[in-house]
Amino acid sequence: MTSIKVSYSHSEFHAEAAQLAAKLGLDVVMLGLVQSDTTVDQDYHLNIGPEGLSLLPVPRAIHGPIMCQFDSGANSHRRKYGGGNGQAIAKAVGLSGKFYPNVLDLTAGLGSDGFVLAGLGCRVKLLERNAVVFSLLQDGLRRAQHVALDDSELGEVISRMALIESDAQDFLAALTEDQCEDVIYLDPMFPERKKRAKVKKEMQAFQRIVGADQDAADLLPLALERARYRVVVKRSAGADFLAGKQPSYSLEGKSTRFDIFALRKLPS
């Protein structure tokens, strides 16, 4: 069992931490005043500090803080130097110089793929049902909006991203035909690797906190009913097709594969 508490690094953040803890139904503690509970597999703190909201392991030596960061780091580098429309994800959703699809990302996580697509001109709705992950993503967007006051280019990207806290199945079931999006994007949590290779720290934490997306296979038929042009499923290279369903075609990469279910011809 994984234990999560909301923590704060300075007394000035106590009220904000208490508010978040009440929303999530979690205990609140001051960082540094509590030790890891040895009765659980791993403790995490959802910590509020001067730099924003972060997920911290206890003990801290396991890995560094996990934050949703759009104005710096890997997301910023990929936006500036990632390869534009030549990226596999852009080809997968059918993005071109003439067509910029509206994308519904059913499993947003920390929003990295959604940010890439928004940076290329797509309007992206980001769905996230896990309350901890949603809080991290919401905080990342909030901080990016603040930075964007002095960075109009970043501001344009963030303005094309809309965050929704919802279970994907419930959201899809409630969509009317007029509300369907051009492309539905699905990136379920990959199964744990059979080899004992070290995975990214985000994946280590998410595997503990979110667990595997056991209902991902149930999302696919719903997505195929609600997408206008195509459904894109992101998988690890070598993984089985989601729900055993053969896609129209796939785009293969070294570690990642995009399975494309083409429903009708894209606008040109």
Shape: globular
Any idea what the CATH architecture of the largest domain is? 3-Layer(aba) Sandwich
> What is the overall number of helices?
9
- pLDDT under 50 segments (min length 5)? 36-41
Determine the mean pLDDT.
Answer: 88
CATH class of the largest domain: Alpha Beta
* Whole-number count of domains: 2
| Largest sheet report | 7 strands, mixed
CATH fold description of the largest domain: Rossmann fold
Strand order of the largest sheet: 7-6-5-8-9-11-10
The CATH H-level superfamily of the largest domain is Vaccinia Virus protein VP39
Distance N to C terminus: 51 Å
- Based on CA atoms alone, the radius of gyration comes out at 19 Å
Helix amount, in percent?
Answer: 25-40%
Q: Could you say which structural class the secondary elements and strand pairing correspond to?
A: alpha/beta
Percent of residues in beta strands: 15-25%
Number of β-strand runs: 11
Please write the string of helix (H) and strand (E) elements.
EHEEEHHEHEHHEHEHHEEE
Please explain how this structure is put together.
This protein is an alpha/beta fold and 268 residues long. It folds into two domains: 2-62, no CATH class; 73-262, Rossmann fold, CATH 3.40.50.150. The chain is 32% helix and 23% strand. The chain is built from nine helices and eleven strands. It has helices at 14-24, 73-81, 88-93, 112-119, 131-147, 152-159, 168-174, 201-209, 216-226; strands spanning 2-8, 28-30, 42-49, 52-58, 102-105, 123-128, 161-165, 183-186, 230-236, 249-252, 256-262. Strands 7-6-5-8-9-11-10 form a seven-stranded mixed sheet, with helices on both faces. Strands 2-1-3-4 form a four-stranded mixed sheet. β10 (249-252) and β11 (256-262) form a beta hairpin. α5 (131-147) packs antiparallel against α6 (152-159). The chain starts with a strand and ends in a 6-residue tail after the last strand. Residues 36-41 have low confidence and may be disordered.
